[in-house]
From TrEMBL:
Name of the protein in question: Glycosyl transferase
Membrane topology annotation: Peripheral membrane protein
Stretches the record annotates as Disordered: 725-755
Annotated source species: Streptomyces rubradiris
Domain Glycosyltransferase 2-like: 8-173
UniProt family annotation: Belongs to the CDP-glycerol glycerophosphotransferase family.
Main location: membrane
Matches recorded under Gene3D superfamilies: 3.40.50.11820, 3.40.50.12580, Spore Coat Polysaccharide Biosynthesis Protein SpsA, Chain A
Sorted UniProt keywords: Cell membrane, Membrane, Teichoic acid biosynthesis, Transferase
KW Membrane (keyword) present: yes
Subcellular location: Cell membrane
Length: 755
């Protein structure tokens, strides 16, 4: 027989891949171990279900239920309750976490209290900016007095936040009372009121056990604008029907009536819940409930709150609107200067720009930008090219810095950043495509579609994940997130990135698992395309080309590579060439003149298309650049030079250890790198196995049709289900490798032995 654990943790999961690992680790890392996790994949559209399976494969205390359809939070919890075996059931939402030592403290308190029906413990709200707000009514959890008690002895506990995740419930009590979650929003209301009123023995724990995440982007469904908020009327109908079955109903009628009215008013007062055209209807429904359920002799609260109660009692929606209008007018009079258009008097926010914002959008205008306007490149360029083929009626304009105009190919329409034409284009375009962010002063108008393509898969920490690292010093994260709030779509090339972006940029965009359009060429190019790419760079057939792409170091000044390139080129011999591409934020002009004059060292920093460099190269040599994720699509060798890993990972922060989870051979010194390249280890069996693992982890969606998916969905309005499905990794055919006339690694080894 299976041993029954003391605690069962029910974890419903939906669209939380950016937070799920942290949630599970907070449980698995507890010092108390007598528990099980019953996790329910509520038909999550992201990678959450797969992540649950990975954890379950590693730890047999985790059981996973995959639902065949999305049923919502309450019914997902019900599915888990059917399988829970513990003496006590705890509910943990999959974006929340447990505090260290929480389970041990809970288990100890349960035993000390003689196994109560319900144990209530404390929580803190945690926010994206690191703020923590304690429970303002935590004093009610003071453990003075009897160890256990019925609610009638401490009715003030009803004023606590009525959520299920700050309580442990005895499983036999749940079964005895027939507790289940109803469908719809606000499912916690019925459960919490029923359980607290029905419990004969309640205990409290004056300790923070739950870290209750307040997701900035409104990941909680209750912060979603929807008519589903009308579900609350049905939930309170159930609450009062339950109350009607109780002999002691009268003592609870007034407290629950007040909870109901406060709940209704909270929904009306919060702008991110009800659609504008549903507010009056909601108010009238709330007013009807007010009059139908008001207890005899009920006394309204004092002050402004009592006035709102009175408006509901009279069904006076016009009075509520008038009161809110006065407040809004006052706020507008004092705060308008703080809006986007009033924050600055720069040229971008001139009267001309304001005028353009009042003109209609041009439904056939798209503005593209990449790397701060440095040219035509990256994912935006690939989308631009596909758009030209599929929707030539859409005018495509590139925003380019004045000093980069000469790098724009002929025939491309441009506007110079900062110019009047630039701001007019931003104001009038329906489509905005960028791999960075547009200026803070830009206003995303209703109807505009902002596509964030990103610049690559992140190894180093990004967005809010950078906050704890020194390299982020001075970063205005609030301003960063305001820029990200303008995104409509975020393109991702793998499940890993999707999870990172969700946590690092917690805003209300839609993630599109299209793949990166710039990588299409790596899957669609032919052997002739590879030969042409090499010919453009002057690479002969007998030459082995190593593409060296280091990333920048925030902790050091200057742009000089960490390698002695001349020395390395000498070790490699005459049949090898180093193609060196600096990070966009570095300055190759600072490199030693000797390197630039060396035939076997070619500076390709100014090459307009890094994808052509990938096609031409036999091998990528990098440190921590996101280039490794793109180049892996070619299934060609990659070498990692991680000579300063400890410093880099401490200063910038990373998502995994590239030395043990990287895409190929790893060198930690310059001498080791030379040995790897000269010996042929760079393309040996061990390196190939590492590359295969890496590709299966990070090459999820790049199958050669990313640009097509983006254009058909975003610009042509086709449904996601009608787009080409992603080709499985093993069925893809990358561009073929270069075809040297003889074994290049043998040439390098021979040259080395002759030195």
């Amino acid at each position: 027989m299976l041993r029954m654990p003391r605690l069962s943790l029910v974890v419903p999961v939906y669209n939380v891949q950016g937070y799920l690992a942290e949630c599970l680790e907070s449980v698995l890392g507890q010092d108390y171990q007598d528990f099980e996790i019953v996790a329910v994949d509520d038909r999550s559209p992201d990678g959450s279900g797969a992540l649950l399976d990975e954890y379950a494969a590693r730890d047999d205390r985790i059981r996973v239920i995959h639902l065949m359809e999305n049923v919502g939070l309450g019914r997902a919890r019900n599915a888990a309750l059917e399988l829970a075996r513990g003496d006590y059931v705890l509910f943990l939402d999959s974006d929340d976490t447990l505090a260290p030592g929480a389970l041990g403290a809970i288990a100890e308190r349960l035993t000390a209290a003689g196994d109560p029906d319900v144990l209530i413990y404390d929580y803190v709200r945690t926010y994206w900016d690191g703020e923590r707000r304690p429970n303002q009514k935590a004093r009610l959890l003071a453990e003075a007095g009897p160890g256990v008690f019925p609610l009638a002895e401490r009715p003030q506990l009803l004023s606590l936040l009525q959520i299920v995740c700050n309580k442990a419930y005895r499983r036999e009590f749940i079964a005895r009372e027939g507790l289940t979650f109803p469908p719809g929003y606000y499912e916690d209301a019925l459960w919490t009121f029923r359980s607290l009123i029905s419990a004969e023995r309640i205990a409290v724990l004056d300790r923070v056990c739950l870290l209750y995440r307040q997701r900035r982007e409104g990941g909680n469904i209750l912060a979603t604008v929807s008519r589903k908020h009308f579900d609350i009327f049905e939930q309170y109908r159930r609450v009062f029907e339950f109350l009607d079955t109780r002999a002691d109903a009268e003592q609870w009628r007034a407290p629950l009536f007040r909870k109901m009215v406060d709940h209704y008013l909270a929904i009306l007062e919060r702008p991110g819940r009800l659609p504008r055209d549903a507010r009056a209807e909601f108010f009238h429904r709330a007013a009807a409930d007010y009059r139908a359920r008001m207890p005899a002799g009920f006394r309204k609260p004092a002050g402004s709150r009592g006035k709102k109660y009175a408006l509901l009692e009279r069904d006076a929606y016009a009075g509520l609107v008038g009161a809110k209008a006065v407040v809004k007018l006052r706020a507008k009079a004092t705060g308008y200067a703080r809006t986007t258009l009033g924050r600055t008097r720069r040229t971008a926010l001139s009267l001309d720009y304001r005028h353009q914002l009042r003109l209609p959008l041009d439904e056939n205008l798209a503005v593209f930008s990449a790397y701060g306007g440095s040219g035509v490149s990256c994912n935006p360029a690939a989308i631009d090219a596909e758009l030209a083929r599929r929707a030539p009626h859409i005018r495509r304009v590139w925003a380019v810095r004045p000093d980069a105009v000469d790098q724009v190919p002929e025939g491309v329409d441009i506007v110079r950043t900062g110019s009047r034409e630039y701001w007019a284009a931003l104001a009038r375009a329906t489509y905005l495509v960028n791999n960075e962010n547009f200026p803070d002063a830009m206003v995303r108008r209703p109807g505009q579609i902002h596509v964030q393509t990103h610049r690559g898969t992140p190894l180093k920490t990004m967005g809010l994940d950078r906050r704890q690292y020194p390299a982020a010093a001075g970063t205005d994260f609030a301003a960063l997130l305001r820029r990200c709030d303008r995104w409509n779509f975020s393109l991702v090339s793998n499940h890993f990135s999707s999870a990172v972006w969700q946590r690092a940029y917690p805003c209300s965009y839609t993630s599109l698992a299209t793949g990166y359009p710039r990588n299409d060429v790596l899957l669609n190019s032919t052997a002739e395309d590879v030969r042409e790419a090499r010919h453009e760079l002057g690479l002969g057939e007998r030459v082995t080309a190593f593409l060296y792409m280091p990333t920048r170091r925030e902790y050091r000044h200057g742009s000089e590579p960490r390698l002695d390139l001349a020395k390395l080129a000498g070790r490699l011999g005459p049949d090898a060439v180093l193609l060196v591409r600096a990070h966009p934020g570095e300055r190759p002009a600072e490199w030693p003149a000797a390197w630039r004059s060396e035939d076997r060292i070619v500076d390709v920093s100014g090459h307009p298309a890094v994808e052509r460099l990938y096609l031409a190269a036999d091998c990528l040599v990098t440190d921590y650049s996101s280039a490794m994720f793109d180049y892996a699509n070619l299934d060609r060798p990659i070498v990692v030079h991680a000579d300063d890993w400890e410093t880099y990972s401490a200063v910038r922060g990373t998502y995994f250890d590239v030395r043990t989870e990287g895409p190929g051979a790893v060198a930690t010194t310059e001498e080791e790198l030379a040995e790897v390249l000269c010996s042929g280890a760079w393309r040996g069996e061990r390196a190939a196995r590492a590359r295969d693992r890496f590709r299966r982890r990070f090459c999820d969606f790049d199958d050669g049709r990313a640009a097509e998916r983006v254009v058909r969905h975003i610009f042509l309005g086709e449904e996601l289900g009608d787009l080409p499905p992603v080709v499985p990794l093993d069925e893809r055919t990358p561009a073929p490798p270069p075809e040297p006339s003889r074994d290049a690694s043998a040439l390098i080894s021979t040259h080395t032995s002759q030195r």
